[in-house]
From TrEMBL:
It comes from the Eukaryota. The gene is POLX_2423. GO terms for biological process: DNA integration. Keywords: Hydrolase, Metal-binding. SUPFAM superfamilies: Ribonuclease H-like (SSF53098). Signal peptide: none annotated. GO terms for molecular function: hydrolase activity; metal ion binding; nucleic acid binding. CDD domains: RNase_HI_RT_Ty1 (cd09272). This is Retrovirus-related Pol polyprotein from transposon TNT 1-94. The keyword Metal-binding applies. Residues 25-200 form the Integrase catalytic domain. It comes from Araneus ventricosus (Orbweaver spider).
Length: 878
């Protein structure tokens, strides 16, 4: 096999797709341009767009930077023209550092994205001469214009040949950039990439755009009899590691993977359920850029760059990552991930260290594609299964008498309906095809189409308290879910819905569905269901708590049953079999419920031990590690290094805001449920959600590395008696904006019930003020938990006063003083709130040394020794 492309092979090759896609008008004569003598001496730039439809990642434009000497193309994808300045400044900083060369000239047209005060000032301060084209003579910026045309032609050809949807135009341009940078040119001895890096690259990794790719599924994400792969579509090449960009058909997202097999004879679009992309559709996609002058220069060709779109990668050329990775709107998910040599990019299946992940919901029938619409389902290979699932759903709707068929009323708003498909696994591992009919209620208007939509769910602190009580009082714990819960509730408003897609004939021409029940998708459906089940539970003799409207109790003095609910999921705690069975039978008499054999609730695994009950999310952590390709990473001992929470000067190394927020949201989900040890770092990193930088993303990935080594940690709730007690702390004066961090924990004996970590809303003028703010916040939670225990008839766990530990002698003395001073007048409300609790013997403030305070880890980065001490004392065990 050749490691290069012979120019004669290119000239002799004939391709009908290329002829159709690249036909142009007669070219202009060549225009003479200045020649550069080294890389980066002269950069040509041009912007294309807006392009419709938006790309898969939401881009409307793409910008090409061309290195005059090597001919390398650097492609970026933009959502707005305003991003041009940031992209160029990042490009300059990065490649000047990597190459030890300096940009001397920038050649652009006269577009306002290039000709503006901000960019002009930046170029002048950097000593870069800005060459602008003659007005109405874009040929003078010929290399950039030519680059745009080449990329568009090739992208058009790729989309035409692959028959992929037009939303993948950015992936096609990105792929074209990669190929162009390794394509020989007339009159040039070396391809652009070879000129740029100084050596001949290897090309045996290249694959056909749009072909079928088979993604290997790690063992931890499947059972023994699950198919070890699923279909995808080849879109390009990964950026920060050796691998490929694949569209995961089943999960409908773009991933970067290394263990891939390709079938270049099959088109991936075959499995999308889409119709063939016609040439006129592709023409309409690029109609906004037809003003590109179709002249031919003796110019060099392309190099690859990426943006909030494809994460392109030059690593496959067997050179260091740092020399060619791309500074764009986004940073790849693999910023810190070490990768091995690619070995042709296929069949290198990673070996897992652990087999304990049983994430069944992620491994369900991995070879099957979940359709997005009725048409996709009908065109899929699993049509019979989906059709059967839809008929089951319609049977359920008919059983509940969800609607009645009426004539279509005139001048009345009609709500559309939509099928939502999913795959689930039963407790015995059987794959189930699920279809749910939902109403498109997003266009309903509050106070016009409906009145109220709020429906509560159980507080996570309430659930942890119930688990602690179940352990200490030896209560049985059972979990249930209500099947098609919303359909049990009536709907008060008059709503007309269009017939289910694909089943219009069953309704008849001119007929619509008048809803009688609260179908999924309507804003008011959740509230209607809540009111329905609340009413039924009260009929069964249960009493709703005022402290938490989703917790109910039934007690006769000796026997007690507690119930909490989160939408259609129920958890029941009871110490009497007869009372338990009576309530369960009553619920089953009204609702169709299913008892969960696996003890899971709200994404947590609940395990009963001889001496207590534990809560954990090890499966969720495993799935995160796999998602971010850190399932084999080297773990670290702390989630954040002490000192890294201090202020750092801002940089221009920005990353994709959506990607960053997604990771932070996933970490917060863990921190708020079972992992208080990562609460501070996630709270700290959440400050930067509006404008995240690369360093923040690296810190977030470090948290995942910490979780890698502590994924089996669980909150343990022992069966020993204990009173409510609390700890409070604050760290004064965050350097970012002067605001302090508050932290506090509330325990039942040694069992952790509640923890809080948040940035204070106002700036404290002293450490004493910051501590008072933190104490007042934790006092509010203490009052709530005391009231909750009282309503649960568990006052034996409330001491005469609740001990609240603090390491601030100044704050304690201030609160115990007889009156406030002029220096504390602005804190009077908080001061008197805490002082009243102290005088009423609700709380007792006690001083404790900082080294012994177990809430310290919620306000600052701590070292390994302090973290281990805290983890031990809040019963977060392995």
């Amino acid at each position: 096999m050749k490691d290069y492309i012979d120019i004669d092979d290119v000239n002799d090759f004939k391709c009908e797709t290329c002829d159709i896609s690249k036909i142009t008008r007669k070219t202009h004569p060549n225009i003479d341009v200045n020649q550069s003598s080294e890389i980066l001496e002269l950069i040509h730039a041009d912007l294309c767009g807006p392009i419709q439809p938006e790309s898969y990642g939401g881009a409307k434009y793409f910008m090409v930077l061309v290195d005059d000497f090597s001919g390398m193309y650097f492609t970026y994808f933009l959502k707005s023209k305003n991003e041009v300045f940031d992209i160029f400044s990042q490009f300059k900083t990065k490649y000047e550092n990597l190459t030890d060369k300096r940009i001397k000239k920038l050649r652009t047209d006269n577009g306002l994205e290039f000709v503006n005060e901000q960019l002009d000032s930046y170029l002048a301060n950097s000593g870069i001469f800005h060459e602008k084209t003659i007005p109405y003579n874009s040929e003078s910026n010929g290399k950039a214009e030519r680059a745009n045309r080449i990329l568009l032609e090739r992208a058009r050809s790729l989309l035409y040949e692959s028959e992929l949807p037009l939303k993948f135009w950015a992936e096609a341009i990105n792929f074209s950039t990669r190929v162009s940078n390794v394509t020989p040119r007339k009159g040039k001895e070396k391809i652009p990439l070879e000129t740029w890096i100084g050596k001949k690259p290897k090309l045996n990794y290249l694959k056909k755009f749009g072909c079928v790719a088979y993604i290997h599924v790690p063992k931890v994400m499947r059972n023994k009899f699950d198919i070890p792969g699923r279909r995808g579509i080849m879109l390009g090449y990964a950026r920060d590691r050796r691998g490929y960009r694949i569209y995961d058909i089943r999960n409908r997202k773009i991933i970067e993977e290394r263990s891939i097999k390709f079938n270049e004879s099959l088109k991936g679009s075959t499995y999308l359920g889409k119709t063939k992309v016609e040439t006129w559709n592709i023409d309409s996609l690029f109609e906004s850029i037809q003003d590109i002058n179709e002249f031919d220069h003796k110019t060099k060709v392309n190099h690859l760059e990426i943006s909030a779109e494809p994460a392109a990668n030059e690593n496959n050329y067997s050179i260091p990552f740092e020399t060619l990775d791309v500074a764009t709107n986004t940073v790849s998910d693999q910023i810190e991930t070490p990768v091995d040599q690619m070995n042709n990019g296929v069949n290198q299946i990673p070996v897992r260290r652990s087999e304990r992940l049983k994430a069944k919901q992620m491994s369900t029938n991995l070879a099957c594609n979940v359709p997005n619409s009725y048409l996709e389902a009908k065109n899929s290979a699993d049509w019979q299964n989906w059709e059967f699932a839809m008929k089951n759903e319609l049977d359920s709707l008919n059983k509940h008498k969800v609607w009645e068929i009426v004539d279509r009323p005139a001048k009345t708003k009609l709500v559309k309906s939509k099928w939502v498909y999913s795959l689930k696994q039963s407790d015995n591992g059987e794959t189930k095809y699920k279809a749910r009919l939902v109403a498109a209620g997003f266009n309903q208007i509050k106070n016009k189409d409906y009145l109220e939509s709020y429906s509560p769910v159980v507080n996570i602190e309430s659930f942890r308290l119930l688990i602690a009580l179940a352990s200490k009082l030896n209560l049985m714990v059972r979990f249930f879910d209500v099947k098609t819960a919303y359909l049990y509730s009536d709907i008060e408003e008059t709503v007309y819905m269009l017939p289910p897609p694909g089943f219009e004939r069953l309704v008849g021409d001119g007929k619509v569905c008048k809803l009688k029940r609260s179908i999924y998708g309507l804003p008011q459906s959740g509230r209607n269901w809540y009111m329905k089940i609340k009413s039924e539970l009260e009929k069964f003799g249960l009493t709703q708590l005022a402290s938490d409207n989703c917790v109910f109790i039934k007690s006769d003095g000796q026997n007690m049953l507690l119930l909490c609910m989160h939408v259609d999921d129920l958890a029941i705690f009871c110490n009497n079999d007869e009372m338990y069975q009576d309530i369960v039978n009553s619920i089953k008499s009204v609702f169709e419920v299913h008892e969960n054999k696996t003890s899971k609730f709200l994404g947590m695994e609940i395990v009963k031990h001889k001496n207590g009950i534990s809560l954990s999310q090890s499966e969720y952590i495993e799935s995160l590690l796999v998602k971010y390709n850190l399932n084999e990473c080297k773990s670290v001992k702390t989630p954040i290094v002490k000192g890294e929470d201090k202020s750092f000067p801002p940089t221009n190394e920005l990353i994709d805001i959506t990607m960053y927020r997604e990771l932070i949201g996933e970490l917060l989900y863990l921190a708020n449920r079972t992992r208080p040890d990562i609460s501070f770092v996630t709270c700290y990193l959440s400050q930067f959600n509006h404008k995240p930088e690369k360093r923040h993303y690296i810190l977030a990935k470090r948290v995942l590395r910490y979780l890698m080594g502590t994924k089996d940690k669980k909150l343990f709730y022992d069966n020993n008696f204990g009173f409510v007690n609390a700890n409070s702390d604050a760290s004064w004066g965050n350097a970012e904006n002067g605001k302090s961090f508050s932290g506090g924990v509330i325990l039942l004996g040694n069992s952790l019930i509640s923890w809080k970590c948040h940035k204070q809303k106002s700036v404290s003028l002293s450490t004493c003020e910051a501590e008072l703010f933190a104490i007042s916040e934790i006092c509010k939670d203490i009052i709530w938990i005391v009231n909750l225990l009282s309503e649960l008839k568990c006052k034996q766990f409330i001491n005469s006063t609740v001990i609240l530990n603090s390491d601030s002698q100044a704050a304690i003395q201030w609160i115990k003083s007889t009156r406030s001073s002029n220096k504390s007048r602005h804190m009077n409300l908080r001061f008197h709130f805490v002082k009243d609790l102290l005088e009423d013997n609700v709380i007792e403030l006690k001083y404790i040394q900082t080294e012994l305070l177990i809430s310290d880890f919620l306000t600052k980065a701590v070292n390994e020794e302090k973290l281990n001490y805290t983890v031990k004392n809040i019963s977060l065990t392995s």
